[in-house]
């Protein structure tokens, strides 16, 4: 006799959505998480709260004409599905596009979510119309950021707990799935010592007991691998991207270690596309870290000049905000893992944002007064100015030679030539002398400013980098930042996990990043942004309705 109807492993966004859907059906749920209650919501809590949605009221108010057909062209051109095992990921992508163009906005709005009225234009591609990138802005930032996305599902979970439909068991780490006659019938694992460390910080792995629970169904929603750099390197696709960098910063806490995915595979679950990953190229070392090797990503506007470690300006589509995967490959081709932004104070004030709820207290507060003060006041946001002042990756100087000297102090092993850098910057600056240009980045800046949203809050008025009135000059060393797994447990459209032979692994479901956000990798090779949280919501919804 089962102790409960459903066990959900992982209290992140996908697990919470699955719990919401399951308890709405009257199913009894036990939700297990190796961390404490302070970490409920997982990685989603730390996010900027961006969601990929199609043809929304927010888009239409901004004059953006979007459609399911255009979004599909963008998605499939970005995904590049080319493997036999991509059949399910492709089917999941189609299903998500239907959701994002249909029920998604109303479903979330009904739970109380609202969105910042300026829709962001992320991952712009910059190559071919049917290639990678978003043709139009689709990045909807949730009022309250990641905290705002997590909150309604936590609220609903607490309500289900009060009704006796949901039980939280924190500090429970699953180490095995029980399988009888080919069907998952429960889980076993370790009870970890209580630890009141703040959200995201490392916690004790001291074992104080064990547990075993039986259930009709088990949903794995345990997240990705980005906190385990050894595992990231082991799966790194060197033939596609080049050698993994020696130094990376972590965009996720260290408990994001992929351990539960290995448990599921050991029990007979299939995983596919594990070599597909999504790591950012604009990572900063956090001057005020929460987790080990804590990194923060810059969300750049289009104007910073981007140089590789050897001082060569990077070409299109390796421009700020355009093509993450192409830029990652381009950076690693130098044999080094870092690159540089060179910009001005005028650019940083208008264009720099930092990813994450804790770096955007104004948006996280959901209050217009706070947003207007931060975004339209003098200077960059307080979070950006703090990084500029205290961050190990920033150089600020009044003169150009002084700037390069500061850059070389940070990376003495790869010194830059001031004359070479100056020549490239001056060449770029000459492209501003008349309304015509052949420089791809200048053309992109002018296109960005044609969009009302970018002109208002995301793109500085074009100016010469070496114009002293726009200074001081700023250089930022950029590191590779680990973040998302694009592959994972192979699932059917009902969320059920598949075995290596394609048959259903009875009793086992998966949702969120551990399932490649759906099907074992519904992004393919490239992500269009807003599709990580969106994929957690969609796949958690499916699993919670089907289990």
UniProtKB/TrEMBL annotation:
EC annotation from Swiss-Prot or TrEMBL: 1.3.99.-
Domain FAD-dependent oxidoreductase 2 FAD-binding: from-to ranges: 5-533
UniProt keyword terms in alphabetical order: Flavoprotein, Oxidoreductase
Cofactor: FAD
Single GO MF annotation: oxidoreductase activity, acting on the CH-CH group of donors
Keyword Oxidoreductase: yes
Annotated InterPro entries: FAD-dep_OxRdtase_2_FAD-bd (IPR003953), FAD/NAD-bd_sf (IPR036188), KsdD_DH (IPR014614), Succ_DH/fumarate_Rdtase_cat_sf (IPR027477)
Pfam families: FAD_binding_2
Transmembrane residue ranges: none
Name of the protein in question: FAD-binding dehydrogenase
Lineage: Bacteria, Pseudomonadati, Pseudomonadota, Alphaproteobacteria, Rhodobacterales
């Amino acid at each position: 006799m089962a102790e409960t109807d459903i066990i959900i492993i992982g209290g992140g966004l996908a697990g919470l959505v699955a719990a919401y859907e399951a308890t709405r059906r009257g199913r009894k749920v036990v939700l297990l998480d190796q961390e404490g209650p302070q970490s409920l919501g997982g990685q989603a809590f730390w996010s900027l709260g961006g969601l990929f949605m199609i043809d929304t009221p927010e888009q239409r108010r901004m004059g953006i004409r979007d459609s399911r057909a255009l979004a599909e062209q963008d998605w499939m051109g970005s995904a590049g599905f080319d493997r036999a095992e991509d059949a399910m990921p492709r089917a999941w992508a189609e299903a998500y596009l239907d959701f994002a163009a249909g029920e998604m906005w109303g479903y979330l709005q009904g739970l109380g979510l609202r969105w910042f009225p300026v829709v962001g234009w992320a991952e712009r591609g910059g190559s071919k119309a049917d290639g990678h990138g978003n043709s139009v802005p689709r990045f909807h930032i949730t009022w309250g950021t990641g905290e705002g996305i997590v909150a309604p599902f936590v609220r609903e979970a607490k309500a289900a707990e009060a009704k006796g439909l949901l039980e939280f068991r924190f500090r429970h780490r699953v180490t095995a799935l029980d399988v009888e006659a080919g069907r998952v019938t429960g889980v076993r694992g370790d009870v970890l010592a209580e630890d009141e460390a703040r959200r995201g910080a490392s916690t004790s792995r001291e074992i104080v007991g064990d547990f075993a629970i039986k259930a009709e169904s088990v949903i794995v929603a345990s997240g990705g691998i980005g906190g385990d750099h050894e595992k990231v390197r082991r799966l790194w696709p060197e033939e596609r991207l080049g050698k993994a960098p020696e130094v990376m910063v972590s965009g996720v806490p260290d408990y994001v270690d992929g351990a539960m995915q290995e448990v599921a595979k050991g029990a007979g679950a299939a995983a596919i596309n594990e070599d597909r990953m999504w790591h950012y190229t604009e990572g900063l070392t956090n001057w005020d870290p929460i987790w080990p090797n804590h990194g923060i990503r810059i969300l750049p506007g289009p104007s910073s000049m981007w140089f590789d470690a050897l001082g060569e300006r990077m070409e299109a589509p390796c421009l700020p905000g355009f093509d993450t995967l192409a830029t990652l490959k381009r950076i690693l081709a130098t044999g080094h893992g870092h690159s540089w932004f060179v910009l001005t104070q005028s650019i940083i004030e208008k264009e720099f944002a930092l990813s994450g709820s804790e770096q955007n207290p104004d948006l996280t507060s959901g209050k217009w007064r706070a947003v207007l003060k931060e975004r339209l006041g003098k200077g960059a946001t307080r979070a950006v100015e703090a990084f500029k002042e205290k961050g190990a990756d920033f150089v600020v100087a009044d003169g150009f030679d002084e700037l390069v000297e500061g850059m070389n102090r940070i990376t003495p092993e790869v010194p830059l030539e001031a004359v070479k850098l100056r020549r490239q910057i001056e060449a770029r600056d000459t492209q501003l002398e008349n309304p015509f240009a052949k420089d791809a980045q200048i053309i992109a800046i002018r296109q960005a400013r044609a969009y009302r949203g970018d002109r208002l809050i995301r793109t500085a008025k074009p100016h010469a980098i070496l114009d002293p009135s726009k200074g001081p000059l700023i250089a930022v060393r950029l590191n590779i930042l680990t973040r998302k797994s694009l592959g994972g447990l192979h699932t059917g459209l009902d969320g059920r996990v598949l075995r290596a032979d394609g048959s259903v692994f009875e009793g086992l479901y998966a949702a969120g990043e551990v399932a490649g956000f759906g099907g074992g990798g519904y992004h393919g090779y490239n992500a269009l942004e807003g599709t990580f949280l969106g994929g957690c919501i969609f796949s958690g919804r499916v699993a919670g309705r089907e289990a």
